[in-house]
Amino acid sequence: MTSLPANRAKTLKEAYRACNVKPLTGENMARYYVDLSAVPNTEAIEGVSTDLDIHEPGEFDTILFTGDRECGKSTELKRIQSQCENAYRVIYREFDWERDVNDAEYTDIYLLFIKKLADDLTELRLKFDPKLLDSFEAWFKDVTEETEATVQSSVSLSQQRVDVSAIFVDRQQLLDLVKASGGDVRHLMQVSRSACQTAITRKHSKIWAENVTYAFKQQQFEFGKSTTEPEYYTKLPEVGIKKEITKDERGQNLLFNLSLLEYNGNSRWNYVNPLVKQSYAFQQALESIEANP
Q1: What is the rounded distance in angstroms from the CA atom of residue 180 to the CA atom of residue 43?
Q2: Nearest to residue 21, comparing CAs of 71, 61, 62?
Q3: Can you give the pLDDT at residue 37?
């Protein structure tokens, strides 16, 4: 039987601190880490290190490391990091500590990672490969211009109807409404009217941030009423990943109630309504898919 450490928690306060769910690092890795290699299905964890070992310098790979929430993914990644640091320059980021992942786009993750990569290169007195940097800048410029154009167009639609300074306490409330609409005009008008109604009911002379938040919650409730079948929420994350919808009755219903939005440009594509993405049901469905890829 494995001997237990002598410095285990002996009071409730110590136990509370010892049961912190943060990933193990530093001395806590040696103090608390338990090798579960005897448990079935842990081979996949060791496979990550093996996959890195068999690649030659200059070869690239992407590894999706998934599991149930709080199952120890970050701790295992920290352990892999410590094992690899002698042979590689490891860049470790925990994006959920820097951004609200429920209100983040994939571009936010790219930007945070690029910033960290730039900081590391500066520390090492190295520079980006010029071709790689030009490629990223061109891609990000296209994405930013498209997003900015959509936001500005939606803002113009609102300004055509209301005096922004007379209706909103701050312009940020209008921008929040626009971003939550996903660029859909009908949806923008719906949440704007709801925010107005809430402000009037609460005897506010202008729309406050709390009125906008309440309007978002009400709209999420409406989505929930119209998507009562669990299978609907299974479909939504799939669309978020594939950016296209199946041409069946369920898919058409999701488009009709604005749970899914449709865009066009060089090609037609679909994406999940920003308010639906923030809902509890959607997050649960997404976690289920990520845990069972």
Answers
A1: 42
A2: 71
A3: 58
